[in-house]
């Protein structure tokens, strides 16, 4: 709940979480307690026999939590909140199309829509439970918000977060132009990619490696706080030396990573006991082709990803800083980064350090972890500014004379 509140995906009084334990007890957030200041002692236990143990009454929406658990024995945790993008869909009686990018489609599961009923009522519980009983995992509540379920609270949170991210991206992309969604074949292409590394014991980490691990940990966590990365998606790596680099692991919550969680990859080997990101081969191809690159980020920030889901060109010749940091951002066709031929490396150079990946966010390179993160921030800020500008009037790009002046002033070759 702290993360949901901190990410501004609910309000002080809104939303509730619950967990069903092995004995059938339901642990749920309390009614009328500040969501930004909850402690573990505030959580209420409603036993299977209906008795309540806690300092506060349970959430007024306990009835629909109970109804979902009754309808779906495989669900052990529920997240309900009112994040603004998904509330917007609920007001319009629509559900987000998660085929926008593969991770959203994979994580969010089957999407449903529950007709309106009064909050806290048995009728609302029946409406939501009926939708979940149809096999839905993420459900929009008409004129209300969203409910998602999972096999544990961590997976329910990840599903909720990915669902809201997809909703935000769809809203932004709709402001740009016609959206492009992924076919079954394209979704399968992403799902079937794998990483085949042999394991090895790298021995004691050097001081340089320990420092890179610290930096990666710091900036991945910052990226989550800045909403440039989400817990289920995005990879960040840093070159160590030669063919060796450190990269985010797969199947781990990005914000909760420690320095030791990052995986050392060296040639065809990866650190024993750890699974490297499925994007590791793409990172490896870029390092091999571009000796100047020292850090790489693949990410899905909302505004830049909106450009990736449309055919609208992303023009950074709108803000001097953007051009100096990013130059001209290329666009890679869908799936290039999943291939085994290393052709993803052709889409970035020393002159063009970033690329838009069709229906898959962005790729950013840098001369250091800080440099790559800085460019990612600039890329997303620029994308947001351009999208906002389109709602005001015609976007004015800088003329060639200004670009030439910038190239001279900042020694851009």
- Structurally, the number of domains stands at 2
Structural class: alpha+beta
Q: What is the helix fraction of residues, given as a range?
A: 25-40%
Biggest sheet, open or closed, and with what strands and sense? 9 strands, mixed
> Main sheet: which strands, in order across?
9-13-12-11-10-14-17-16-15
Give average pLDDT, whole number: 94
Can you tell me the CATH class of the largest domain? Answer: Alpha Beta
Unreliable segments of 5+ consecutive residues: none
Q: Give me the count of strands.
A: 17
Strand content: 15-25%
Q: Mind sketching the topology for me?
A:
Elements: H1 2-6, E1 16-20, E2 26-28, E3 44-46, E4 52-53, H2 62-71, E5 77-81, H3 84-91, H4 102-108, E6 111-114, H5 122-133, E7 138-141, E8 145-150, H6 153-176, H7 184-191, E9 198-200, H8 207-225, E10 235-241, E11 244-247, E12 263-266, E13 269-271, H9 280-289, E14 295-299, H10 302-308, H11 320-326, E15 330-332, E16 354-357, E17 362-366, H12 369-390, H13 400-409
Parallel strand pairs: 6-7, 9-13, 15-16
Antiparallel strand pairs: 1-2, 1-5, 2-3, 3-4, 5-8, 7-8, 10-11, 10-14, 11-12, 12-13, 14-17, 16-17
Helix pairs in contact: 2-5, 3-6, 4-6, 6-10, 10-12, 11-12
In short:
By secondary structure, the protein is α+β, with helices and mostly antiparallel strands. The protein has 13 helices and 17 strands.
Describe the structure.
One of its GO terms (cellular component) is cytosol. This is L-fuculose phosphate aldolase. It is an enzyme of class 4 (lyase). InterPro entries: Aldolase_class_II_sugar_metab, Aldolase_II/adducin_N, Aldolase_II/adducin_N_sf. Keywords: Lyase, Metal-binding. The chain is an alpha+beta fold and 413 residues long. The chain has 2 domains: 2-176, Class II aldolase/adducin N-terminal domain (L-fuculose-1-phosphate Aldolase, 3-Layer(aba) Sandwich), CATH 3.40.225; 196-409, L-fuculose-1-phosphate Aldolase, CATH 3.40.225. 36% of the residues lie in helices and 17% in strands. The strands form 2 sheets. A 9-stranded mixed β-sheet has the order 9-13-12-11-10-14-17-16-15, sandwiched between helices. It has an 8-stranded mixed β-sheet with strand order 4-3-2-1-5-8-7-6, sandwiched between helices. Strand 6, helix 5 and strand 7 (138-141) form a beta-alpha-beta unit. Helix 2 (62-71) packs parallel to helix 5 (122-133), helix 3 packs across helix 6 and helix 6 packs across helix 10 (302-308). The radius of gyration is 23 Å and the shape is globular. It starts with a helix and ends with a helix. The model has no long low-confidence stretch (mean pLDDT 94).
